[in-house]
Amino acid sequence: MSTQTVLRYNGSAERHFPRQNSLSEKSGPQPLKNIGNVADFTRPQKNKYTYEVVEGIAKWLQERTSIKPKIGIICGTGLGGLTDEITDKEEFPYTDIPLFPSSTVAGHAGKLVFGRLEDKEVICCSGRFHYYEGYNNYQVTLSIRVMKILGVTHLVMSNAAGGLPSDYNVGDIMILKDHINFIGMAGGSPLRGPNDERWGERFISTTHIYNKEMREQAKKAAEECGLGPYLKEGVYCMVGGPNFETVAECRMLKLLGGDAVGMSTVAESLVAAHSGITVFAFSLITNMCCMEYDDQSPPNHEEHLMIGKQRTALIQAWVRNLVGKIQLNQA
Ligand SMILES: O=P(O)(O)O[C@H]1O[C@H](CO)[C@@H](O)[C@H]1O
Ligand code: HPA
């Protein structure tokens, strides 16, 4: 008989996320009677995925692959081609992985790819989850915590984004130096809720969230790959989407110091940093944000996919070169 972990959703959320004491279990006064089986509203909401559930998902994967990844890669919109570079591939469609969300956005294939890149063992998410798809931030960042348990120490993330400064061009690559987290600043952090110290501490600093050493390595790699002329470094603004921004919103983002705007990445960065993973992220500028009302080129998703395809070869070579430079024992 197989000894593999069986971790299937059995229709009962309580199996994985046990309900805390319900009102009816309390010994004190119970002013509300016969209101059914309700959660305890006097306690904060628990993280949706407990450490044990994430461990279970990681174990399910470990039982099916011999790759022990130290480097995690997340492919942004239209950048799924990054997986082409990986050798000795073992692929897991998200729909096969217990408790995993599924990709719903065009340009996000929806599979986990294990394999080798520049002789290093990697795991690559070909397709990420976005808040606007209806997923909560725990679902959006589940893959990062699975990576952590699998042994990942370094994360390379990509995204498609709109450019804000006038000296940016479509096709440029912006290394994230910092971010502005509009959802997070309004209370929607993926670290909200009781903190499980096994992931990391309650209050984390984000001053150096995008690792300087990796940014420098990436700049060197860009020069070596001929990507130098297209390379920028700046501040990524995370908005909820799925609508693109109004002219007034774009102007505000620029005024606040933003260089690019997109609908992803930041929640993943925070969860990775929380658990001590070294984070590197970059944006492919797929469109320029509309700063004037008579602008005749509003952003559209199909165009973003096309720009992604056009830049794929160069970005693949760059990411491969960067992965080659990562010192796996660096903090
Ligand atoms: O951030 P990624 O996943 O690259 O996707 C970006 O591209 C989509 C819009 O075209 C949005 O989902 C935006 O966030
Ligand atoms: O202009 C944009 N805004 C938000 N998200 C995006 N993703 C690609 N381009 C954009």
TrEMBL record:
Nucleoside phosphorylase domain ranges (all copies): 70-307
Signal peptide: none
Documented EC number(s): 2.4.2.1
Alphabetically ordered keywords of this record: Glycosyltransferase, Transferase
Disordered: annotated span: 1-36
Record-level Gene Ontology MF annotations: purine-nucleoside phosphorylase activity
SUPFAM superfamilies in the record: Purine and uridine phosphorylases
GO BP: nucleoside metabolic process
Domain of life, source organism: Eukaryota
Annotated Pfam families: PNP_UDP_1
Record pathway: Purine metabolism; purine nucleoside salvage
Reactions mediated catalytically: guanosine + phosphate = alpha-D-ribose 1-phosphate + guanine; 2'-deoxyinosine + phosphate = 2-deoxy-alpha-D-ribose 1-phosphate + hypoxanthine; inosine + phosphate = alpha-D-ribose 1-phosphate + hypoxanthine; 2'-deoxyguanosine + phosphate = 2-deoxy-alpha-D-ribose 1-phosphate + guanine
GO cellular component, one term: cytoplasm
NCBIfam families tied to this protein: PNPH (TIGR01700), PNPH-PUNA-XAPA (TIGR01697), PRK08202.1 (NF006054)
Family: Belongs to the PNP/MTAP phosphorylase family.
Protein known as: Purine nucleoside phosphorylase
Source species: Nezara viridula
